[in-house]
Amino acid sequence: MDFSDKLACASSPEWVATVMEDFDEFLRDHANCERKASSMAMSFVAKYPNRTEIIPQLIDTAVEELQHFRQVYRIMERRNISLQQHMDKDLYVNGLLKLCRTDREGRFMDRLILASVLEWRGCERFKLVAEALEDAQLKKFYHQLWESEARHGIIFVEMAKIYFPDNEVDERVKFLTEKEADVLQSLALRPSLH
């Protein structure tokens, strides 16, 4: 279950090569992404406290993402890699957020779907990283991560379908995954998750 079929384009072999050439920098970016993913899940709780049906799952997701951050940080410690002093703007995520509709309900649906799209892309890319790594422990870690990202990819679309008709969610998923491909392909290659 890797969900790469949910994406409108595949990551390039050049992206994998870029990551492998500067894996330490990839780890820094990965740590930042896990922190942001945890914050994103909690931001849904803060912005939509009346959506009580999804709050427990959002909290569980936030905790799991924070645990991933801790795991990445431990790897960084072993490799003597420090966290970045500040987190740069994520051009990929910012590009996706520009696709969100502005009305409250439309934005809510779009942000949930984009959370799934982010997880699907993370799933695809963690799988590629796991396959490219030679270190057995790191390979195992990234294999576990892509399985976790796959679960998260399902969760956010299921949340959207609690509040919106399935066909509307499915249509918006198709639209946003196509636009995600445009955003991804517009960015320069970097040793980063996105």
Can you tell me about this structure?
The mean pLDDT is 93. This protein has a single domain (15-186), classed as Ferritin, CATH 1.20.1260. It has helices at residues 13-21, 23-47, 55-78, 91-97, 104-132, 136-163, 166-186. The two termini are 20 Å apart. With 194 residues, it is mostly helical. Helix 5 packs antiparallel against helix 6 (136-163) and helix 5 crosses helix 7.
Descriptors:
0% strand, Ferritin, globular, mainly alpha
List the helices and strands and how they pair.
Blueprint: H1 13-21, H2 23-47, H3 55-78, H4 91-97, H5 104-132, H6 136-163, H7 166-186
Helix pairs in contact: 2-3, 5-6, 5-7
CATH architecture: Up-down Bundle
Total of DSSP H or I helical runs spanning 4+ residues: 7
- Rg over CA atoms, rounded to whole Å, is 16 Å
Strand content: under 5%
* CATH class term: Mainly Alpha
CATH superfamily: Ferritin, core subunit, four-helix bundle
Overall form: globular
How many domains, as an integer? Answer: 1
Judged by helices, strands and strand pairing, the structural class is mainly alpha
Q: H/E series, N to C?
A: HHHHHHH
Estimate percent helicity: over 70%
Distance between the termini: 20 Å
CATH topology: Ferritin
The counted number of beta strands is: 0
Report the biggest beta sheet as strand number plus sense, adding barrel if it closes: none
Mean pLDDT: 93
Uncertain parts: none
Compact summary:
The chain has 194 residues and is an all-alpha fold. It has helices spanning 13-21, 23-47, 55-78, 91-97, 104-132, 136-163, 166-186.
